[in-house]
Give the backbone structure.
Amino acid sequence: AEENTKPRRRRGKQAGTEGSRKVLITLKDNDKGWWDVASQTPGRNDVMSKVDTDTALVQKYRQRADELYDLEVSAFNASTEMADQKWMDDTIRKGTLQDRIAAMAVLCNEHPVHKLNVMDQLLNLAGKERRVATMSGEALQNLFVDVYLPSDRKLIPLSQRPLHEYERMVGNGNAGGGKGGGKNNSAGNAPIKTLSPRVLLLWRFEELVKERYSQFLSLISTWLNDALDMHKTFGLRTTIDLLSERPESEVQLLSMAVNKIGDPAKKVAAAAGHQLRRLLEQHPAMTEIVAREVQQLAHRPHLSPKALYSCVVFLNQLKLTQSNEATSLPVALIRTYFRLFEVAIKGDANDEKKKGKRKESNEMDSSAGKIRGRLLSALLTGVNRAHPYLPKSDDAMIEHIDALYRISHSAPPAAATQALMLLYQLAIGDDVQASDKNGPNAKKSSDVLTSRKNRFYRALYSKLGEPLMLQGRQMTMFFNLLFRAMKYDIDDTRVLVFSKRLLQTASHASPGVAAGSLFLVSEVMKVNSGLKDCEVQNLLTEFDPTKREPQAALGESKCGSLWESSLLSCHFHPSVAKFGASLGSIQYSGDPCKDFSLAPFLDRFAYRNPKSKDRQKKQNKLGESIAERRSGVKGSKAASQTPVNDPSFLESGAISEMEEFYYKFFAERTKRDEVKGIVRGPKKSEYDGVDYGSDSDPE
């Protein structure tokens, strides 16, 4: 009987001790979070240790803290109401998925310190199928941002706490206490500080939160590598939200987000760029950090051309500021762009060598060439955008001039145009700045800039003879560059040679290009009287188009005439003929290159079932879109005009050169219809005010 009572007394004593144990960690109303608990306790917010903490010492305190935490959780569970706890447990165990996740989130939100086991259940759900992972991931994101992660600092593990300050000091340097030194050891073994159990418990809890946050980041990494683009986008959005709200593990989060710029899926790569730009809108101070991370991604070996192109496009869209420091962001971007230039040019050279060895995979070569052409255009766009923000001394740009000229001669038309635009800024812009300088080195500087200017005009003159430069989407930029170069050139002979070569090339091009070239020369004549005099002389002189130097094309006479304008005045297109006859006094407010092309001409024949103006405005969003020039608004504008087959158009006497062809065609057809007795179209009174629908409606 005595043997059976003694164990019972011991168990009752233990149970009474646990039941009477007080909860150490209790959140007050004025606490912002668990990190503010016991903030006034000595040692609570000690800084990280500057010395390496012994692993055995860390493990010792970690084991002691785990025991304290188990007792803390047991005391908290004993103090809570059983009815509420049972209801929450039943919901978590038997409820629907949405109710289970909501109940877990509520428990963690109300008792963040004592319900880490519930967070473990959420982390377990986040590793399951996509639907479950998405719902639990959103709950975990909200919990970490609103409850568990401090907003002003990172989490500190137990290994970085000053645990050695709470150890007993051994007298005379003896770890085991020497013989006869008992009295000294008793005096020297006094602890320097006393570590409160509550502080140790909070330190260990902070480490536990850091471990679970690392598990959550591992789950996000698996979402980012998922096969489904939608799940990748969800992981990417979660990554940026965590990065923008809390500083914990920001290096890892930024690396994960930047890596998705190089994702093979176009939508995911675009979403990564968008999310990073959204991050920079909230935290502009991170611009250089994000740019540095993207630059490191761009310099990785064996990176695909699409990923590299996405990196360059993102860097082009960064907001830059003026700085005179040599390590500023614009300077770093310029260096990155030119390093990538060298890589792209070496790739072109290697491709040329491989072409002689193999004759297959032409489609792959063409697609790679297109991507490389787009890459060069994007790189030059970035250089043009970063150049105005460089320091006053542009030595970083000058050392890359040879690479720019190499690109202008060998790259596709779009990239060549971008390179010439940058070279124009370096040549003509520096020339204007040098004219304002005074000093002993002014003449030497002027000679250098003059030689640079002549080299630019030689490169531009060589590209002017290529018909491909007057085609494609870069044609408008090329015409703008050509107009500025001719307008600010003080050499009348060179301006004349440029005009002659432009008109000769345009005479073999489409009517829109021919009209645009005549309009450009006419605008240059308004600011260059010497060119106007050459047009009036109309003399036949020597002109050699094979010369590389523009001044040498006219021979020794250095003078000539624009007889090409008289040739274009006999052009088959009436508008081009009128422009050629009135060179120097052309008055036109539109874009000749687009207005006189084939598309607007065919749009005037789209008169069969014209749409109402209100319907066109609503469908095309006229006046609202920033891309009206590319959305076919020109065609809708032409379709909204009076149809060319309408009797009112034939009866009007004001017929322009552009409408002369339509007038002759439909006037002749009307005469033939009258002879044959043919009546075309519905009666006006029967269909007056009716919307006829689109061009695809059946008759």
The CA atoms of residues 596 and 681 lie 29 Å apart. DSSP finds 31 helices and no strands in the chain. The mean pLDDT is 78. The two ends are 110 Å apart (CA to CA).
